[in-house]
Amino acid sequence: MKTAHQIDAQFCGELSKLLASDEPVVCELPGGGHLHIDRQLPFLCVYRRPEEHADTGTEQLVTSQASYLIASAGAEFNSELSALVETIAITQVENFGGFLLLEICAKPGEAEHASALSVELIAPVSGAPAQLLEAMESALLRARIDDRTPSIQLVYRQSVSPEDMTPLIDDERCASIGCTAIGLEINPFFRDPDTGELYVFAHKEFRHRINRALKRCFFNFTHQYTTHRPAHFHELGPRVIKDRVKQVDAVLAEINSQFDLLLFVSPINSAAAWDQFSERGYKQPVEFHYRPRTIDPALLKRRLYEVPIESIDDPTLAYIFEAKREELDRQVTLLSDRNTPAFLLGSRQLFGDISPELLQLARDILEKVPPDAVDASQAEQLNAQQFGAYAHEELDYYRSQDVTLASTIEIRDDIPGIMVSRGNFLIGANANFSTSRLRATLAHEIGTHVVTYHNGRQQPLQELCGGMAGYETLQEGLAVLSEYLVGELSSARLRQLAGRVLAAHMIVDGADFMETFGSLHQEVGFGAYAAFMMTMRTFRGGGYTKDGIYLQGLVDVLAYLANGNDLRTLYLGKIAHEYIPLIEELRWRHILKEPTLVPRLFTLAESQERLKRLAQGCSVMDLTAQIS
Q1: Degrees (nearest 5) of the Cα angle 619, 624, 627?
Q2: Where in the sequence is the domain holding 161, given as residue range(s)?
């Protein structure tokens, strides 16, 4: 059903059949109306657009629901709308044994109360659903804005519809068909009372809060008044991904794929630079060379802000996309500022500064965790080709889980070690690898970065493949945790992560390359090459502070496990710690899929034992006691 030119008996009959067969209904209605019903659901949100005045922002309060109707309040549409709503109510009552009709409107403006965060619950005089009203009041009280709790007033009226509008279904008819009707009048504090101009940030926040509050209300209604039994209120959210969402996601993913920031800020002459630095007796800084930039930042930013995120009526998805656009904007700026003083400022915006707590943890590790008793340099070493053979075997293991895994392995002269880029594993041609760290490296790079990239590609949202805004902290923390779970998180590795935190703090604090190297080498005790690599990673591009996130990510993941959460959730794609609640919401809404690849460590008995211990609660310093 695309467009209804007239809401007649034939249309209502077709609508009833679609709803009875659990088909989605998306239809344009006469008078500029719109009907959207995701699937069989025992509720409908209704908003009628006033004819005599503008009502900026109110309509968008219903469009985030899985079942809503927007219509004109013109008198000529009253009978048709009544027939339409009654058809929906009767059909859904047959499906669920009950049905809730919730009509939302903006309260007539009063200048002296224009900024008040207040809501009126309108209940029928007879047969008011007491349990539902209490649940609605409780849910609405949680819709706090800027530490303000909404003022909730319960009002009983003959009609729950706005006072200047004809009831969609009268009380008697509601009772006879098993329908419950409630009204919600919201004080439009989110717009200017004189001009009607929208306060964008207030409206966006309120829309997000009211969306969640309404789903809680519907959840209570389904359990108290219908046969429907959702396990979580998020299950009642929309499941259909609209075309505009797919378009925004695709454009953001395409922009994200045009450049790899890590490649563009990583020196291509790191091996030669080390040779030169050591020949000079570690006394003089060296020059780093970079790949030529292949994008025009101005053109890319123009495209970025042409993406119509504001057209998305799902607050959760809009929030995720807005955060990604902001991150891409900062990344493009960072790329433009490479090797200038502005680069460090941009990096700090992107990754944040080192917190006092993280800095203290790093210092505790460096002070209390001794270097490995066994010198890792004495262990058997693998060259790039030998290590690549093991990496190929690891990829083959994951292809046995999913043959569509498209990741490749490349040995390249312009890589100063190893990295995963666009799901491909890149190995520096001059790099050497200790056999004592083989499983840890494979678990980190392939078992985490490649696996989450591939799982993200299987999702309907490409953002989980390219990475949500701020995903690197959780991603690197998860990768470091995998090293521990396979039994190869060494003291030296933990000290390395702490040294990186110290280096990131020092550059922000004003230290130069030689001061940072000297502190790591002479004061902390890192070997010259290790101190050089830490310093190079921190000063590349002009000051790349990303290295502080590895240890922070480990802290976050350990806290996540201690709170009883399932580690497998973190492999759905490249997700950010901040957005885990949103990821859980999208899972409840059946938008996200379960991961197709599961890290090898989940098959290892010793890894499962370690996971059980971590679930009891474990800090990073506690972890050090378990590292041999």
Answers
A1: 130
A2: 9-240
